[in-house]
Amino acid sequence: MHSTFALFHRSGSTVFVDDDIDYLEMLGMVLPGHWQVELYAHPGKFLERMKDEPARWEADAALQLQMIDRGRQGQAMAPQILRYWARNSGRYELIKTCVIDYAMPGIHGLQVLDALLDWPGSRVLLTGQADDQVAIGAFNRGLIDQYIPKHASNIGVQLNSKLRALHQAAHTRLNGMWRATLSSDQYAWLQLPSVADSLRERSDRLWVEHVVLADPFGLLAMDAQGGCHWLQLEPADRLGELAELAATAGLGPSTCRDIESGRKLAAIELHQQLGLSGPVPLAPPFAVDPEGRLLGAHFALPASDLPLPVPSYRHFLDTCRQRRIQGA
């Protein structure tokens, strides 16, 4: 089944709750090193960690809404996003997924999840063999987003696969907020399964976060090392308009012909939004969809072109505590 492409995506924390210390230690070893992972052996410690999460999610959503409102008032969006990344490194601490063992002394996992109230992240239940029917019922009632048999022989593979899918999934509320910034034609492109799959694969492979912008149309993204990137998206039938814009921006006739014929794309609007000096960057395009109806071009943004230095996700991981079990 085709899933919606996330218009606003970033890495966040995945939390595991299980009273089995050995199992938690195993999880800490099998999960990818580039994931932010927290391990809790006691539900009480976990719930203490979670008590401020809804408010922190709300505060972050408010920052996004402020950017969207300023965009509606005519402020360029790209510089706003870059400043947001530079000033809000704590966004990576927001918990995106909780994975909780069903059978724990004195309490079961669904009770723990029920206590989270307004927390808007993904909920996963770890189940023993006797708990599978409970998990299936909870999944069918929408109480959890996924369940995983904890003693499966391929538990590492299952965890990586299912958690990665949840990690990539569009957050309903945030996607709705950013959907309102796009035109109907732009959103229609992103709804095409081939386009969504192509962009999702590229983002998952290269970047830790991205935002889809409408004006200009494309993805502003950041890699784990803090490098910022622009993936410009251009419908092939609108290359003539881009060539005309290139001419008004002072690009030469041969460059304009290359743009109109689809041999090059120019990041003209982004160049203007960031107030950059020097020549407008050009890049060879690639087909985002199999038919070549939507083209993309990747531009790396030099750190000197950014409004503020952007702390990297790798630096955040390096400064976090090791995967030490809390509440053991």
Question: Could you explain the architecture of this structure?
Answer:
The protein is an alpha/beta fold and 328 residues long. It has two domains: 8-173, Rossmann fold (3-Layer(aba) Sandwich), CATH 3.40.50; 183-305. Helix content is 42%, strand content 21%. The protein has 14 helices and 16 strands. The protein has helices at 21-30, 43-50, 53-72, 77-87, 109-114, 132-140, 155-168, 172-179, 184-191, 193-206, 239-248, 253-260, 268-273, 313-319; strands spanning 8-10, 13-17, 36-40, 95-101, 103-104, 107-108, 122-127, 146-149, 209-213, 218-222, 228-235, 265-266, 282-283, 286-287, 294-301, 325-326. Strands 1-9-10-11-15-14 form a six-stranded antiparallel beta sheet, sandwiched between helices. Strands 8-7-4-2-3-16 form a six-stranded parallel beta sheet, sandwiched between helices. A two-stranded antiparallel sheet has the order 5-6. Helix 3 (53-72) packs antiparallel against helix 4 and helix 11 packs antiparallel against helix 12. The radius of gyration is 22 Å and the shape is elongated. The two termini are 40 Å apart.
